[in-house]
Amino acid sequence: MRASIRPPELGATKSSLQLWPTSALLSLKMEELYRWLLPVGSLQFINMRSRQHRCGVLVLLALLVTESFSTRIIGGQVVPRFSIKYQASLQSPRGHYCGATLVHPQWVVSAAHCWIPSSLMKVVLSEHNLEVDEGFEQVLNVSQIYMNNFKYWTFDNDIMLIKLSEPAQLNANVQPAALPDAATPPLSSDTCTVSGWGVTQIYSSYLSPVLRAVDVQIISNCRRYYYWGMITPNMLCAGSRLGGKDSCQGDSGGPLVCNGHFEGIVSWGIGCAHPYFPGVYTRIRNYVGWIEDIIKNK
């Protein structure tokens, strides 16, 4: 077995958050409540070159709390190899840190909070096992990154469009996701699939080495679950009303696909797989025109 490095513990704050007086969660420790789905945090990185686990920590003041950050698939299963053909892995020199979605041979979409300098970012397609070179991976450099007025403190407009240095080779393992269009029915209580290499257990700090996915349900009345003003029209929510199914640390930037269409980007949430707080996703439908315009003109 490979040696692993235990990441630092979360901050030892004992303060409580009491923002939802009508909720069953009247008082929770901060470290038990918040999980902002950022690209790095108190989790184990998997490095594609060295195959060693490395630890990275990013601490940032966000909204009301200082916390450790990152993202995961809870309650899901390992998917068959290359069955999610649009799934991409964003990798830094340390290894995988965010997911992304291929929408065009030379373009992928991820979350704006997954940004790092393009010179440090690689996009890997036809990826399944992060610990093994399977011989099918396409590792591509990044030439340009575009954002759309991302508001870091509210996570509004959490979308990033990445131009690859050269087109990906489309084949049996790699195909772009379908964007929703005017004829696509509106989302209601649809069952969708979210995928990624994030951690697989609540409070775990170890990425899944293999791609996983879980089915979640669109939560149409999401604003009632969150503090006033946190959910904007550019966001949608998905999860399970009973809890136990969610994206979380390591899945940031990855795809939420509903009825065959790319509908959401893993963005943020409070806790992981909690029945009171479904995962929050960037609403792709609000950005289709922007995506298509940049792809056409850039």
TrEMBL record:
The source's superkingdom equals: Eukaryota
Q: Keywords of this protein's UniProt record, alphabetized?
A: Disulfide bond, Hydrolase, Protease, Serine protease
One GO MF term attached to the UniProt entry: serine-type endopeptidase activity
* Coiled-coil ranges per UniProt: none
Instruction: Give the EC number.
Output: 3.4.21.4
Reaction(s) catalysed (UniProt annotation): Preferential cleavage: Arg-|-Xaa, Lys-|-Xaa
The record ties this protein, via SMART domains, to: Tryp_SPc (SM00020)
Checking InterPro entries in the record gives: Peptidase_S1_PA, Peptidase_S1_PA_chymotrypsin, Peptidase_S1A, Serine_Proteases_S1, Trypsin_dom, TRYPSIN_HIS, TRYPSIN_SER
One GO cellular component term, please give it.
Answer: extracellular space
Q: Extract the Pfam families matched here.
A: Trypsin (PF00089)
Q: What is its main location?
A: secreted
Compartment(s) where it occurs, according to its Swiss-Prot or TrEMBL record: Secreted, Extracellular space
Return the protein name: trypsin
Q: Which organism is it from?
A: Takifugu flavidus
Lineage of the organism: Eukaryota, Metazoa, Chordata, Craniata, Vertebrata
